[in-house]
User: Fold these one by one.
Assistant:
Number 1:
Amino acid sequence: MKPVRIGLLGIGTVGGGTFEVLKRNREEITRRAGRHIEVAWVAARDLDRARAIVGPDIPVVADAVAAVSDPDVDVIVEVIGGTTVAKDAILRAIAHGKHIVTANKALLAIDGNEILSAANTHGVMIAFEAAVSGCIPIVKALREGLAANRIEWIAGIINGTSNYILSEMRTKKLPFAAALEAAQRLGYAEADPTFDIEGIDAAHKLTLLSAIGFGIPVQFDRAYIEGISKLTDRDITYAEELGYRIKLLGITRRAPTGIELRVHPTLIPAGRIIASVDGAMNAILVKSDAAGVTMYYGAGAGAEPTASAVIADIIEVTRLMQAEPEERVPFLAFQSDALSDVRILPMADVETSYYLRVRVKDVVGVLADIARTLADAGISVASMLQQGAGDADNETDIVILTHRTRERNFDAAIAKLVQMPTVRPEYARIRREDLG
């Protein structure tokens, strides 16, 4: 049978890993796919570097957008990233009837509705397992393995850089800046780590998981995003003393009035398995009605772990090329005409529980005043602790754990607390989830 020919857009970390694994495991991949899969050409900005990787027998081209119309190519594999050249190349490839495999979570989170609509129009496949958490087959699990279920919530550690930083802060008692520097030194964090530490990368991935889990359009612009750059080692220590660990979580949940879509630091009970996921690893929990809670764990990034997911998608596309479009698994798990435009809840309407640390004057009555202020806002206190004796300024930390309440109620209570003469204006607020 004629080989499947792919055009590889990008030969950086993921592209290089994809090329290497395709070459190394060629026979195994052929046995699984039923046909040979071969690289027709590679598109790259640095032509000399690309030629050094792929050798003299595979053409290297500079213009990715022009190359995708090649009539001898069946599948375009996009691993260049970004939302400009990649988008132009993918839309042009779709218009020329090419199937797409991509690891580009940012592009799909921002422009996914347009791209998936174009793919539906032209009857081609879009496969994007590698866009979410590297080698973890979470997209396939949601689209196929849990297809019988009504998904209730998804919660995951889906950014390895942030998880590494938080692990270093906890185990080595490092401040945030020192843990970030260690991550950069080891190559876990970029020189500009904004996308990772401010939760943007995780929100891209969560947007896709939410769309697949609940059968809704991708809506990155409605996600609530809060990163880890303001976390202190003091709060990580206090959390551990209280039996919790802090992780940057992406959480999407079906609520009575809409869908929650949020990324933020979260206290998790230390006894939960996901709380023990340290270093640069990823882990995702899915709660569904029939299967209960299932967990997916593995390397969320890296050349060959991500290449594993890219090539799995290439194999799947190869197997289904001859199938009619209506016989294939829908891109977002639900039939395209059955997607539901359920609203994404604003953060003010989300219900959760909280960790609150405030700095107060160590005087009689301050605890009662704080409890009264919270009660007036309809917030029930689960526990309230004084951490340490008063310092030279006669000040001390008060740590409060609340029961569930709406975010708008909590915000109103904080606004009143910090106006009290016995309470310093600086505070730390971290959401808390049981994940049971």
Number 2:
Amino acid sequence: MNERILVVEDDPSILRGLQLNLGMEGYLVRSAMDGETGLMMARSERPDLLLVDLMLPRLGGLELIRELRKSDPDVPILILSAKGQETDKVAGLAFGADDYVVKPFSLPELLARIGAALRRPRARGETGVGRQVRRFGRAEVDLVARRLLVDGAPVELTQKEFDLLAFFVTHPGRAFRREELVRAVWGSSYEGTARTVDNFVARLRAHIGDDAEEPRHLETVRGVGYRFTPGG
């Protein structure tokens, strides 16, 4: 079956070019020209991959990604943006994007990145539905049901505790600064401090049975922030 790509882009000329070229490559292309419509379509149609511009009307690209990741942590998302600063790329990846392509981009490069993203293993499976479960240590996290089990018993989490845990388990092995975690989980408009992350990580360690002195899963990276490691 041909892969389905949702393009969320408000520049008509870029959108037409992507629709034409992706269609010629055999992809089934759907499109939206604002963030709210793009998020609605992503949730209802469950495409195989999203191409998302950052500067969108009604709902920005980063907010679209952050909201979509709450219900679908596995669909590949590529950002297309004229903003090419390192801080922009870091923010995009922290919010849950898989890759970041700077405009103007070459079509062969974009097609290569799309192909690579589609080849990566996905937890939601070939049907695009079903449970999305991550297991590590004594814990099992169901990302769809928003449920944490430890030693088979349910553990109650607040909404933000689960959001932070879900972000960690869907980005294993990468160190994130506290500021990146705040933007990804609490949003760019959050007025609290990065110290909030420390408090939440401490609570999550207690919930999952991670040793506070020598954590195996929610590790402290000195001078940076935190990293989630499934093994150990």
Number 3:
Amino acid sequence: MKNRFLPLVCSLLVFAGLAAHAQQKPNIVLIYADDLGYGDLSCYGATKVKTPNIDRVATEGLRFTNAHATSATCTPSRYSLLTGQYAWRKTGTGIAPGDAALLIPTNRVTLPGMLQRAGYQTGVVGKWHLGLGPKGGPDWNGDIKPGPLEIGFNYSFLLPATGDRVPCVYVENHRIVGLNPSDPVQVSYKDPIGTEPTGKANPELLKMMYSHGHDQTIINGVSRIGYMSGGKSARWVDEEMADVLTGKVNQFIETNQKKSFFVYFSTHDIHVPRMPHSRFVGKSGMGPRGDAILQLDYCVGEVMKTLDRLGLKDQTMVIISSDNGPVVDDGYQDEAVAKLGGHTPAGPLRGGKYSAFDAGTRVPFIVRWPGKVTVGTSDALLSQVDLLASLAVLTGQKVGAGEATDSFNTLNALLGKDPKGRDYVIEHALNNTLSIIKGNWKYIEPGQGPAVQKNTNTELGNNPQPQLYNLKTDLGETKNVAGQNPHVVAELTSLLKTVKEGK
């Protein structure tokens, strides 16, 4: 009689074990800021601007000092983050125009797709900038696909590209939000389209003047890159964008609170055009860029409040980072340079967005998961390309052969159990110059191109000669010591060559 119940008991024990394992899988909230520099947060040393909500997450979690985006620009960083593959391995993954086709192949394993396999509900809210639609670009007035839903997300609410590029509409899942079919959207990145005024021809209509580029179709008093007509009922209002996006993130969390969920909150802040809500205007004393930092911090706080209110804080891993380093004047006359007031967006680092120097890719990176992640500061070497492999291990998934080929499991470093992290990190700059960091050494391969990007006044790090820096003694990369250390140059040149030839 006893034995007849044994299979049932065993089954119940197995089920209980699986249920317990499932409960160990955290919700994951990835907050990915735009153009946020290493020195832009008070928890990273900023004194002219305060970010109490992000600081609180850092105080309750682990703040990394040596974490890197894969690229110094947005589209390739995002591609690498979601695919686990360096974007420079695939052609067409530079800064994408607003009408680009989907850049991520629908048959490629992705971070959200992997988490879907683990039973997660997956959502993306905010800036996309990875293309939409088939080859030739999307049908803006019909079903806009393939897109996020075809590469692993259950829900999406997007800016199709960036805030400074048309079309200036939100796309929810496969459709433009609020589009009137009698007023179809038309987009061109080649020739003027429709009769909309442009910044170049009608500067008197602008509420924020452009400084370089950004002089085409005017939407909401701001001229953009590209031409757009139609879709008047669907156009976003820049000043309301942060609230709209944060609301959608919180709605997604509310809807999926009883399930395992992953939400990728890709903020627009602090990218241009910097048009924060009136609640933040003038509050930083640093002009729109500083005010946008305050707005970003507020948005993080609102998401944290939602997790607290729903009792999800202890079951949720929160990751906060940025797609690349900072840029001050990136195309609009918003007084960002004049009102810095001693603030250093890159902190002690050299360069910025677009640059091969470390400020291009060394970014804030904070992880919080109460009771699971060590509290404090870590110098472990991290790359965002590793999130896919690391979170796969965390959620009991396996990454197959040929999938996420550049993504390594650095979960122990993310949790604070490993103080070392990666053996090396690869960085990618605007002109496809690659760099490698290993130990205290950083090597920048010889590259052509200007030393300084004139429009943004950013040091790009281009040099026809090899560059080698000892980051332990020279974090600001001021002294090229390649000539004094030929053996180190040879070692890192060889390692970089091996990585390049990998797949």
Number 4:
Amino acid sequence: MSARILDGKAMAADLRAETAAAVAAMKAATGRVPGLAVVLVGDDPASRSYVAAKGKACAAAGIHSREIGLPAPARREEILAVVRALNADDAIDGILVQLPLPDASIEREILEAIDPAKDVDGFHPANVGRMVQGLPAFAPCTPVGVLEILRRSGTPLSGASVVVIGRSQLVGRPLSILLSQKGVDATVTLCHTRTKDLARFTRAADIVVVAAGRPNTLTADMVRPGAVVIDVGVNRVPDAARASGYRLAGDVDFEAVAAKAAAITPVPGGVGPMTIAMLLRNTVEAARRRRGARA
């Protein structure tokens, strides 16, 4: 068996085109476009690259974007002041604070300062609580991107047995909730580093989602023939043949698992592009909700 490649890059392009059409329609109807603000503290190269990619994606979709850069020594009060100003800015519909912050100890307080109506990253406790209850809410972009890949690829979800490896608040936990909600109706097992005999669970699964942050977490002997495998991981693996000295790899032993699975996402080009696409869609939805409430 040779797995069908689930092309997240192509799906994300379709999503961005849909978002651009929605933005154009909103502009024609109201004369305004959605606005997204990104707060970047410090000069971490990976964070800066990701923020730049978001800015380009916003421009292509017609979304107004604003980047607020603060130096790494920025105090808690300075960051909170920026967030509060953006909460009050009517031109901004979505706010994203790029993580990690130089001072990880203040991340929770900063995220909780964001107006839940503008929390397009879906990290505010108010949105998390509403998501758990099955109410309309912004959910973290990567889990929603995974769900969108499964839906757009025609993967049956109702009644499916799904194993999610990884229990982070950014991916694993919210994804397990989204997959088990009414209307999706998957049966979900959430596994993690303390799970005994992980392969016992993965071999019984119709769908395996791996978000462990460790290469080769899922190997071919852990997957049943015909399973669907979603690889969320992005790891730098040493590679002397590359000018950079490394290559990007996921959490799945791709070649071996692809020979056994029915469908699989690649790394790069799988889940990653969907994250930004879902952020743009959330920003448009935030604009609709906020402006609809004022109408």
